[in-house]
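#struct-help
A.M.: can someone run this one for me? Single chain, 70 residues.
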Amino acid sequence: MTTYEYAMTALNDAIYTAVRAANNEDGAPVEALRRMAADVDSLIDHRCTVAEMRDTMAFYNGAKLAGLTG
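D.P.: on it. Structure tokens below:
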């Protein structure tokens, strides 16, 4: 495991710990933490954020509709 992979795994563990803790706190930013967790997961799995993946898929689907992909 590389230093980057180790650090991303530690970040992922920390953000999910924060999400679980926020679920038990009134006024905690649960939704923001969940979005951050989704971005960390996406960075680990795809090396881009959720928004970047969404934009890429929209671009690809548009190109597909236009017949520009194989």
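A.M.: thanks! The CA atoms of residues 51 and 65 lie 21 Å apart.
D.P.: also worth noting: The chain has a mean pLDDT of 95.
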